[in-house]
UniProtKB/TrEMBL annotation:
GO terms for molecular function: transmembrane transporter activity. Residues 315-430 form the ABC3 transporter permease C-terminal domain. Keywords: Cell membrane, Membrane, Transmembrane, Transmembrane helix. One of its GO terms (cellular component) is plasma membrane. This is FtsX-like permease family protein. The chain crosses the membrane at residues 21-44, 311-335, 355-388, 400-420.
Amino acid sequence: MIQYYFLLGLRSLKRNPILTALMVLTLAIGVAASISTLTILHVMSGDPIPNKSDRLFAPIIDNGSIEGYVAGEKYIDHQLTYKDVVNLLASKQGERRTGLYGVGMVIEPLRADLGVVAAEGMAAGSDVFAMFDIPFLYGQPWRAIDDSNAADVVVLSRQLSEKLFGAVNSVGQRLRMSGAEYQVVGVLDKWLPMPRYYRFNGRSSAFGIEEEFLIPFATAIRHQTTHSGGMSCSSKREPGWQALLDSECTWFHFWFEMKSATQRTELQNYIDSYVSEQRKFGRFLRKAKNQLFDVRGWLNEMKIIGDDSKLSAWLAFGFLLLCLVNTIGLLLAKFSVRASEVGVRRALGASRGQVFLQFFIESAVIGLIGGLLGVLFAIGALLLIAMQSKQLAVVAHMDWTMLGLTFLMSISAAILAGLLPTWRACKVTPAIQLKSQ
């Protein structure tokens, strides 16, 4: 019977092609607008490392100036000083730990046809690879002893490796980076966590391109490699690299990996104890609360998902609701002209339930067609959005989850819109309709 009603639904669409087209188009546009916005929000708010996001922790320590400070004032700097990074690395807290910062370097490739290449990467400790589940295509991470010796080694992204050496295993190759010669020890497979949680330089950086290279943290410091990103200084400092390292300027991120999420309290106690000890040296005079964030908490603290993105999603769903109201009106018009047909069916013995099921399935058919068209519209909208910038290109893509949600939303929307018209249709009184014929 359901198959029969489904075929009837398809046939009824041909009776009023213009009205049908209006319903399908209205539904498709509403679904496409809402689903494309929801898709971007879905990618932006995802868990970038779900298997251990509750075991990775980033500390925030308030080293701001005491001048003009109001107790309880929120600290807005989310980076650490070099001296704190060194001390936390030596703490041996957790299974792994790393300090890191963004670096930009000029690469002089061996290939004469390429010329100088500017690349953006990261300086970090060797623990970073295991901490963040960074995959390798060739080679392996540098060793802990390379951290200690500040060795001139580098791990390249797959894209940069192929650009410099071609589609071959480049492990063992050498190249000059900002005047120093580095040896390639590994090549990464694609690694682009969404959002980029481990270092933050504004919301746009959370959805940027993948790291093009990684070098040891100690090596970057030895070569006086300047940072790529923000810096905050709570007091004046003397000129020079060593003065910068000794200063209260913050430009590093730091992460701990614990064995379990339950060790958060233990780590928090250590951070509190560390800050208390440093106050003896005249630091951290504000005596503010020390904060510790896991990955999800860190993303919320950084406001990766801004209020404007949430507002856009609500506006998109408001537009979908408006489209549903229009679809209800069109369905009422479509079903009202078939009142005589319903009266004849009821007179011949059809129950209200059977009439309701027929029109209900017809609404679902409209939803199915609207869903197919809505998917095409949503994909087109995402392609247009992706063309605006590299950051948007990263998040403006539809996965299987969102594709399934599009169909479900379209059919559900059509069924929801069809409930009132369907209920009105099955309430037709057969005698009145037969007398009017």
